[in-house]
C-alpha cells in the first residue's frame, strides 16, 4: 500500500517494478513448505505409483500453482482486494511475526533453570515485543478500516455524481 501513495516518478516506477519482482521470486520460497506438507500427506499415493511417481508429483505441484493463480485472478475481481489483504495481514502477520514468538519464548520450558537477571531481562524484552506487536497490529488494523470507509465514501460520491 505504501508504494501506491508515492508520487508518480521514474524512481517510483522502478521501485514498484522491483517490488513486484521480489514478490514473484519469493513465491517459490513461500510455496515450498506448502508443497512439502501436502506431498508428505500424499506420499502413499506417489509411492504407490513408483514408475510415474515423480511425474505425478510434478503434476500435483503444477495444479497447486494453477490453483494459487486462480485465487489471484479471483482477487483481481474483488473490489478493494488490497484492503482485505491488509486487514488479514494486520492481524495475522503481527501475530506470527511479533506476538506468538515472544509469547512462546515467554512460556519456554526450562525457564527456571536460567540466571535470574537474564531471565528477567528476557521476559521484559518479550513483553516489549508483544506490546509492540499489539500496537502495530492495532494501528495497521485501524488504518485499513479507515481505508475501507474512505473507499466506500468515494464510491458513494462517484455513484451520486
From TrEMBL:
InterPro entries: AA_transpt_TM. GO terms for cellular component: vacuolar membrane. It comes from the Eukaryota. One of its GO terms (molecular function) is L-amino acid transmembrane transporter activity. It is a multi-pass membrane protein. Its main location: membrane. Residues 2-144 form the Amino acid transporter transmembrane domain. The chain crosses the membrane at residues 16-38, 59-78, 84-107, 128-149. The keyword Membrane applies. Keywords: Membrane, Transmembrane, Transmembrane helix. It is found in: Membrane. It holds the Pfam family Aa_trans. PANTHER family: AMINO ACID TRANSPORTER, AMINO ACID TRANSPORTER TRANSMEMBRANE DOMAIN-CONTAINING PROTEIN. This is Amino acid transporter transmembrane domain-containing protein. It comes from Perkinsus olseni (Perkinsus atlanticus). The lineage of its organism: Eukaryota, Sar, Alveolata, Perkinsozoa, Perkinsea.
Amino acid at each position: 500500500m505504501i508504494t501506491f501513495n508515492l508520487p508518480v516518478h521514474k524512481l517510483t516506477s522502478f521501485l514498484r517494478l522491483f517490488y513486484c519482482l521480489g514478490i514473484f521470486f519469493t513465491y517459490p520460497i513461500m510455496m515450498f513448505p506448502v508443497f512439502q506438507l501436502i506431498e508428505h500427506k500424499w506420499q502413499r499415493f506417489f509411492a504407490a505409483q513408483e514408475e510415474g511417481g515423480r511425474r505425478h508429483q510434478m503434476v500435483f505441484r503444477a495444479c497447486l500453482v494453477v490453483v494459487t493463480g486462480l485465487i489471484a485472478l479471483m482477487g483481481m475481481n474483488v473490489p478493494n482486494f488490497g484492503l482485505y489483504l491488509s486487514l488479514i495481514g494486520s492481524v495475522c502477520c503481527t501475530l506470527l511475526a511479533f506476538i506468538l514468538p515472544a509469547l512462546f519464548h515467554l512460556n519456554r520450558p526450562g525457564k527456571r533453570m536460567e540466571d535470574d537477571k537474564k531471565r528477567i531481562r528476557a521476559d521484559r524484552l518479550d513483553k516489549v515485543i508483544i506490546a509492540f506487536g499489539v500496537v502495530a497490529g492495532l494501528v495497521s488494523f485501524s488504518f485499513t478500516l479507515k481505508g475501507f470507509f474512505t473507499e466506500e465514501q468515494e464510491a458513494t460520491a462517484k455513484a451520486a455524481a
